[in-house]
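WARN no homologs supplied; continuing
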Amino acid sequence: MKSARGFSLLGFACARPLQTLLCVFAALFANSVFAQSAASASLSITSAALLFRNPDVLAPSLSPDGTHMAVLARRSDKRDRLNIAVINLDTNRSTFVTPFDDSDVVEMHWVNSTRLIFTTGNIIDAAANSVPWRQGGMFAIDRDGSNARRLVSPLGNGDAIVLRPRYSIFLQSIGEGSDDVVVAANDNNFEALDVYRLNTRTARKTLLSFEAPGDSRQWILDKSGVPRATITQMRSRVAAFWRPQAESSKWQKMFEGDILEAGSAVQAIDYDGSLIVSTYLNKALPLAAGALGANVSVNIAIRETAALVRADVQTGQFRELLFSHSRVDHADAVFDPFRKKLVGVRYVDERLQTHWLDDYWRGIQRSIDQALPGQVNFISPPQQNKRMLVVSASAKNPGSVFEFDFASRKLKFLFDFRSGMYADTMADARYVKFAARDRLPLAAVITAANGVPANRPAPTVVLVPSGPWVHAPCLCWDAETQYFAQRGFTVIVPVYRGQFGLGFRHWTSGAKQWGLTMQDDVADAVDYAIKQGISDPARIAIMGTGYGGYAALQGAAKTPTLYKAAIAMSAPTDLQLFQSITWADYSDSAFQKYIAPVLIGDESKDADQLRTTSPLNNASNISAQVFLAYGGEDRRIPQQHGTRMRSALERAGKTVEWMFKEDEGTGYVKVENRVEFYARAEALIRRAFAAR
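OK structure emitted
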């Protein structure tokens, strides 16, 4: 069998109320000592065109009856757009069921075993609206390509800037025997979601969320598709509610507080009707069978990390602890729809993991891990007991898909997400842990430079993740990292404060810290790598997109002797403009008005800080060579951030390399533009290192 060769391991949702709103915006807006492995034969270099093109296949999904699999596949006869292909797993015959050449299918779900619902858009939206389904339409189609139905109209071809789009989001199918699904839509309020039952053949919608307790941003359904819990927002305050019965009962409040307060919220409803609750509140609880409860202290009111507990549906009282980890928050609860029970909890500690509460699934996982060693083997219990899909991935493997047969307990290789890429051609990565200068626990993913001996400090590229309110990086395959590592650079991906998944203190300590302690965290990761002999202190570059681009420029200004090159794509350079802008996709939103002042800084009260931490105002401090890249269709970070930064650098006597693509947005869509950007970035870094 060939070794495996993207696949996002972080597809779970945020459940804590203080983080849910930021997950939505981010969706709108990827052993303490590191021992470098001895350099063996140099890796072959994968072409940039292969690394940065869209995956061949994405999002494999079994039909409820297990007979068919639907995937999003790159269709060469349709301008490489992602379309739906359906594979009969008994005959191995496949066919495309959608014909799009001007958009991608960006999301799909089975309605029942014969029908699919899907959303169109751009896999990376050229207009920089980072949730592609907000620009697309919603459709349904039978698995043989017949009986197509438009359910929600697209917003056109993307030429017009739609700052406040109407959109619908798939929530849940009803089940076999029904053509209905449950969706959430902002039909009545741009800032809030209502819940509807939608017939995929007639497009008729029926409102389900009567008498909602406020402006809902997230809904939790029970297993029959009835809305039973919600998270609301009013200004910068959030609240979590649940309803004891499916109908007619009043909404009960579980938590209300400021966006930075610790609280509790329902994440799911179990098959027995009990509440599965995410909480930062610390209470002594009995452990459920198979529960993990590491380092639980009852002497403090607030937990360091979010725990998953079971609560009574009538009273909301916590009954048992399902999962608690000393270092990281929980992620999704995992249910077995065939056996109708809660069976596990996802979490990320260096890599995606599943803590199984159920002996049967623990055994299945063990047998798969033995067959595919050294990989993260991701499984989700199916709705039948015949077959299941397994996604196997690692830092060196973009992802491979296998079929698992329950009767024989054997695996059958199906396909790779990215053909032509093999694990033995990829650079290896390690997850390292250390302390920030203020003692906050930090981490970084460090990928070894190809061809550099283990005992020699390597030229280094610091890739600052975008966001900043995204899940902290883990040991997952990344095209950008592999590009630079294969070409002889050690790559550091820092875990800075403010990201999700590492506990309450870690993310709240990032409030109003753009350019301050968040920036220090990046520098502390570099300092760690220098002290460990991993990085050459005279050859360090910093690079990023969005917030990562901001951090690249601010880092070059704040610590000018540390970085020799700074590459920023779609970077906000003026935090006052970022707050006051009226032509971005978040303009006049609840985020801009109420959340950004808390997390970034108040335009009036924190004006001095916003000026001080804006790269635009610090251009004269930058000594690194600078490369700026922007897109003319960027709705998140308009090009004025770039043109003003370029002018400020030029006024300060600096030479700036500039890249501008009129038809691109945040994160260039066209492969040829991505290839050009990374080639120019690499060339600038090499020139900067040679000039030291």
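The longest strand covers residues 535-545.
OK
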